[in-house]
Amino acid sequence: MPICIECRYPVSRLYHVLHSGNAGSRKPPPINRSTKPTQSNATKKGDVPARTKPKPAPAVLGGDVRLTQCPRCKRFADKYVEHDYVVLFIDLVLVKPQVYRHLLFNRLGRDDDELDPSITRLGALLLLFDVYLTWSRIETLPFHLTASSPMPHLPILLQYAFYLLLCAATTAGQHLTIRWLARITGLGARIDNETGDSWRDKDETCARSTPNGISMALFVSSCMKLFPILMVVWKYDDAGGSVGRGVEWAVAVQNLEALRILLECGYVGAAGLVGAGWVVRRAVARLIMSSVGLGECL
């Protein structure tokens, strides 16, 4: 059930269609059932049988819609229904709670605890950006930090496979840690053992705080990792790693806000989850990089 992004009150729907300009709503012309097509006419090229069923048209191709008013706070239940992706991305960067509720509850949340295909694509894109950023950062380090490692002398495909494995392992460690801690500590909503659905006790709001819902929140709130794409266009000196550290802090703040909104656990509980995930992520990265002589590159 969708919720109001302002006060989290459940609503039946987010908008009403007042008028549809669907051309497919017109009735098809009547079919003459008095005569049957002859054999010669039925076999002619290009003829269509008289009893062919018309192809159904989409329900709504356009028209006027009216946003639902929340019965509790008397504001629009979800104003982002009529906003484009640019506005959503800007509000994600500004860490507005309303846009997180819109994405996690009303747009991307699913009752079957399955990840939306768009979240899967976003996760793959973030993983590839992690590979690029990690690889470029290590290549720009001083020579004495990578002299004892055989990685710079390996073929390009082997180097790419190593960094892909590194980023996949660190991301999996972070997600699994936060999901496990959220489950054993009971943060967020009560989980139904039979169906796996998560229902919030407060305001009777359906929360997507299942394990896949937590991973969805982490992926959505990690959109700041896409900003270093500017490194492909403009080259700049980042030997000190200030840009990378700034992106990590921005992503941590967004993760904290997304988990706080999803689990309703407050800033202290969300900060504990984010901190634990970051510690495990760094530990996994150090373990894998130390195995190839890159332990001092963190």
Low-confidence stretches: 22-29, 31-62, 190-207
Q: Measured on Cα atoms, how large is the radius of gyration? A: 26 Å
Query: Number of DSSP helices?
Result: 10
Report the span from N to C terminus: 44 Å
Proportion of beta-strand residues: 5-15%
Helical residue percent?
Answer: 40-55%
The total of beta strands comes to 4
List the secondary-structure elements in sequence, H or E: EHEHHHHHEEHHHH
State the shape: elongated
Oligomer: single chain
Overall mean pLDDT stands at 77
Describe this entry's structure for a reader.
The chain is mainly α. The chain contains 10 helices and 4 strands. The protein has helices spanning 39-42, 85-93, 97-107, 117-139, 143-146, 156-185, 211-220, 230-233, 242-263, 266-290, and strands at 15-20, 63-67, 190-191, 198-199. It has a two-stranded antiparallel ribbon with strand order 1-2. A two-stranded antiparallel ribbon has the order 3-4. A hairpin with a 6-residue loop joins strand 3 and strand 4 (198-199). Helix 3 (97-107) packs across helix 9. The two termini are 44 Å apart.
